[in-house]
Structures are given as structure tokens and as C-alpha cells.
Amino acid sequence: MNFDDQAKTFETRTGLSETTCQGIVKTALALAKIQPGDRIVEVGAGTGQIGQWFAPESVHYLGFDLSAPMLEEFRQHLDTPQENVHLVQGDANQHWPVEDSTANLIFSSRTLHLLNLEQVVQESWRIAQAERAVVLMGTVQRQKNSVKNQMRDKMQSLLAQKTLQGRQKNQLLRQLIERFTQSGASVIEPVIASRWKVVNTPRQSLESWRGKANLAGMELSEELKQDVLDRLEIWAQEKFGELDQPIESEETYRLQGVRLN
Ligand SMILES: C[S@@+](CC[C@H](N)C(=O)[O-])C[C@H]1O[C@@H](n2cnc3c(N)ncnc32)[C@H](O)[C@@H]1O
Predict the structure, then answer these.
(1) Which residues contact 237 (CB under 8 A, 6 or more apart)?
(2) Is 126 helix (H, G, I), strand (E, B) or coil?
(3) Tens digit of pLDDT for each residue in 237-249?
(4) Domain of residue 8, residue span
(5) pLDDT tens, 148-169?
């Protein structure tokens, strides 16, 4: 999936608050027992919404991402170029742009579903420092009955009639952790780094999907996309009464992963 066209709007569309992002970084540093001078690698660093908060810490941070426009947004977040921050364009499904045995924390947020799991496991072991290395994956968890989840589930089931089912993120995470443990890693218990309330309407989900080039990570013809969203709109109208009905729910940001060394 290509994020180049989403770079400018990514944070407003999927945004986490500044306090949440700072909290995620603090929790990740504590979980990985990061010390001054340690090396952190972020896979799929994106616009640096989270990654930028590693910059003020006494660590070396390398963030890489497939999308140059996303990294350009990241650079805009840094007031001046920071000596301890390196941003590199690179494909996580190929050889990672990181030296062997150097990373103490390998962090990835909201990106795992876009990656090849075998490559993540293999490259994480290659770049992990021999004495101390942790892999942490961050995901936003929504309540099952949140309006966003219900809209997404229905959209995916409408889509599944014609294309493949959207990939399930939590299932992928479980698979990744299993592969790491099979290769000798130990599990770190999941931690909620932040929780917050959101108020969403069904119309917001519909509009955000109408404005995107693809649905559920799949590139679709404009005709098929319109068809799915039109049928979703009819379903939502019946389900929620009206499309502008504000519905409150809780979201959390969960960090989980493994200790490699
Ligand atoms: C949903 S965004 C998450 C960005 C950031 N980690 C965050 O949580 O704000 C996914 C990011 O993964 C990047 N990405 C997708 N496939 C990738 C790949 N094969 N290698 C590296 N980055 C990739 C995208 O360009 C995008 O910036």
C-alpha cells in the first residue's frame, strides 16, 4: 500500500494526540529498559507522529520508511536536523538499512499488517544487539462496538463478497510473536500505553473512505468502491438511525512484543 498520497493528511485522518504519542515513547523506552546511548530502529516510521518524541532522548534513533513524502513530513516535525536522528528511505520487505547487531529497540507502530512477517523476524534477529534487544509493536485497539469498528467490519464483509477479506491485524501480531518465540525470543506482556475517548459518526467513516484511493488496503476500481460504500451507507442509516449520530467509545494504544536478547 502506497502512503505517498496520504502524507499530508495522514495525521489528521488517523491522528493520535501529542500526549498519547509522548506516552507511547516513554512506555516503549521503559519496557525495553533503554539506557543513554542505546540504538532505536523504527520500521515504517511514517510522518514521525510518534517517532519524533525519541529525538529529545539520549538515544540514537533511526527511522526508515518506504515513502519519501511520509519521511519529509517527519523532517518538518523536527525544528532543526537532530544529530541523533536518522531518517532513511527503505523497504522493510527487503534488507533493512541497519547494520548487524546494533539495535536495542526495534519499534513499529500501526505498520505490521503491511509487512512480510518472515522478513520482520529475520531482519530483527540480524540487527538485534547481542546483549539487549527488544521488539515492540504498537497498535490502536478500538472497542468492538465502536462506530469505526462496526463500519469497518461491515465494509469488509461487503467487500468480501467480491474480493479477499481484509487482513486481521491482531491475528498477524499473534503470528509474528509466535514466530519470534519459535526462534528463541521471550514474550513481553502487552501494555496499554494510552487510553482516550473518541466520538465518531458513521458519516465520518464513509467520508474518510470515499476520499481514499483504496479500501481495507486493497486497490479497487472506482465503480466497486462506490458500490460498496453506497451499500454501507444504506446499512449504516438503518443501523444507527442517522449518519450524523455521534457515538462515544474508548480507544487504547497497546504495545506488545518480545525480548530477543
Ligand atoms: C499506517 S502508517 C504508520 C506510520 C507510523 N508508524 C505511525 O504509527 O504513525 C504505515 C507506514 O508504513 C510505511 N510502510 C508501508 N510498507 C512499508 C515497507 N514495506 N517498508 C517500510 N515502510 C513501509 C508506510 O509508508 C507508512 O508510513
Answers:
(1) 243
(2) helix
(3) 999 999 999 999 9
(4) 4-142+167-199+250-259
(5) 889 988 998 898 765 544 447 7
**DSSP of 72-85, one letter per residue?**
HHHHHHSSS--TTE
- Kindly state whether residue 205 falls inside one of the protein's structural domains: no
Q: Is the CB of 109 under 6 A from ligand 1?
A: yes
* 259 Cβ closer than 6 Å to some ligand 1 atom: no
Query: Residue written as cell 515504517?
Result: 44
Which atom of ligand 1 lies nearest, measured to the CA of 49? 9
Question: Distance (Å, rounded) from C-alpha 207 to C-alpha 13?
Answer: 11
Please give the model's pTM, rounded to 2 decimal places: 0.88
Q: The domain that contains 48 carries what CATH number?
A: 3.40.50.150
How far, in Å, from the CA of 112 to the mean position of ligand 1?
8
Q: Which three cell numbers stand for residue 105?
A: 529497540
- 16 CB under 6 A from ligand 1? no
